[in-house]
Amino acid sequence: MIDRDDPIVTTDLARLPAHAMAAALRTGEASATELAAAHLDRIETEDGGLHAWLHVDRAGVTAAARESDVVLARARADGPAALAGLHPLHGIPVALKDLISVRGGPVTAGSRILAGYRAPYDAHVTERLRSAGAVILGKTNMDEFAMGSSTEHSAYGPTANPWDLERVPGGSSGGSAAAVAAHHAPVALGTDTGGSIRQPASHCGVVGMKPTYGRVSRYGIVAFASSLDQVGPFARDVRDAAALLHAIAGRDDRDSTSAPVPVPDGLLSLPASDDEAASALRGVRLGLPREYFVEGMEPGVAAVVREAVDGLRSAGAIVEEVSLPHTDYGLATYYIVAPAEASANLARYDGIRYGLSVRDGDVLADYLATRGRGFGPEVKRRIILGTYALSAGYYDAFYGTAQKVRTLIRADFDAVWASGVDAVVAPTSPGVAWRFGEKLDDPVAMYLTDVCTLPVNMAGLPGISVPAGLSGGLPVGLQLIGRPWGELELLRLARGHEAVTAAAAWRTVEPPGLAALRAGEAPTPAERVAALGAGDR
Ligand code: GLN
User: Fold this and answer.
1) Ligand 1: which atom is nearest the Cα of residue 171?
2) The whole model's pTM is what?
3) pLDDT digits (tens, 9 = 90+) for 297-314
C-alpha cells in the first residue's frame, strides 16, 4: 500500500522499489502511465548532469505504459486471480543497456560504428520483458562494446556517479547502474563479461547480478566475448533483482548456449519480512577466499567487507576461509580469451552491414576507413591483442594455454563446492569509484579493478553484488558467488544480508550528487572531464 501521508511517496513515486510500485498498480493507487511519466520527467530534468541515458523515446514509452494500463484495468475488473496472474514487472519501467536490441530502435553499444543502426528485431530479453508487461524506458550509456570498467570509453561521453558527480559509475554497464541509483528507473538490465554488472552496482550502491552462463539468452545482444557474456539485473533491492531475473531467464532456441534449466518460481517469493529473510542465513556455510583480499585493496573497502561478513556470521552463517589458488591467473587469462573472442565478434563491422559506412575508394579502403574511424582506442587495443593471440604460431601458446588455465579456475570453485561450502563471499571490487581520468592513461590499472569479478565469468558461475556500506562516503559492494544454477540460493543469501543490515545507518544515506541533479544545476560529465583535461584518447 502506498502511504499517502509519507511526503516522499506522494511527491515521488520514482523512489519506490518496483515491488511497491507493483502493489500500487494492482490497487489502482498508481497507473503505469503515471509511473512512466514520473521517471521520464526525472530523466528530462536531471540527466544533463548524469548522462546515464543514450536514447529515450517519450512518446513510445507513454504508449507502452497506456497499453499496460489497459491490461491492468481488465485484470482488476476480472478479479484477484487475473491480477495475481500478472507478472510483478507488469507496468514497471525498465532501463536497458544500449547493446540490447529493441525492434526499430537504435542500438549503439556505446560505439560510433553503430551510429544510425536500427535493430531489425527484439532481443530475447526484450521479448520477455514485453510479455511480462514491463515498460521499456530507454537505453543506457556504456563503455564501447562493453570494454571497460568506468563508462569513460563510451563514444558518446561519460556517465557520472550519483554519489559523487566527479567520479565514474564503474562499467561497462555504468549507465544502467547510475540510472537505478538516481531513481531514473527502478530496475535495469546490463551485461557482465568480466564484472560489468557487479562492479558498477558496487560503485553506485545498488544490487547487480550476473547469472550462471547460459541462464539468459544472448539472442539480440551485441556480442563482446561470447563464452563469457551474460545479461543480468540491476535493482535497488534484492527482491526486485530476483523478479527481473525471473522475467528474462530461460531457454531460447535461438541461443544454443542458453540452457534448458527450469527457472525457479521462488525468485518471485523472496521473503518480504526481514526476520524471515535473516533466518535463511542460519547454518549456511560461506567460504571466504584468502586470495580475494588482494594486495593494493583499499583498507576502507576491506573493512566494510569484513564487517558485512561478521554480520552474516552473527546471523548464524558458518564462515570459513577457503582457497581459490588460481585466482591470480584470472586477469591474465581473461585478457587473452575476451579480446580473442572480441576480435572475432567485431569482424562483422565492415562498413557494409551495420551503421557507419565511410567511403574511401575501393572495398578494402572503405573497410579500413570505417573501422579506423568507427572504433575507439580501447576497442582497437582489444582487437589487436585478440588477433595477435589467435594468430598462427601463437594460438597454442596464448589462447590454448588460457583455456587450460580457465579449466583450473573452474576446478578451484568445484573443489570449494565439493567441500560443502554453499557460497563464496568476497569483495566485488578492490576499491571505490575513482575520479574521471584517474585510470584512463593506464589500461592495466583499469583492468586490475576487475580482479575479484573476472574469475566468476571464467568459471561461468552466478555472482551478485549487494550494497554493504560506505568507505569515505562512497558505496562498497559485497560479492556473493554461487554454484552453477544456484541463483535462487544466492538471492536468498543476498536478501538475508539485506535484512540483517536493514537498520544500518549507511542505508539512510542518499547519494549526495542527487541534490545537484535535482536542481538541474550540475555540469555535464563531459564538461567535468574537459575541465579536468581527462578525455579518452
Ligand atoms: N572491465 C572488463 C573489460 O573491460 C569487463 C567488462 C565487462 O564485463 N563487459 O573487459
Assistant:
1) 1
2) 0.97
3) 999 999 999 999 999 999
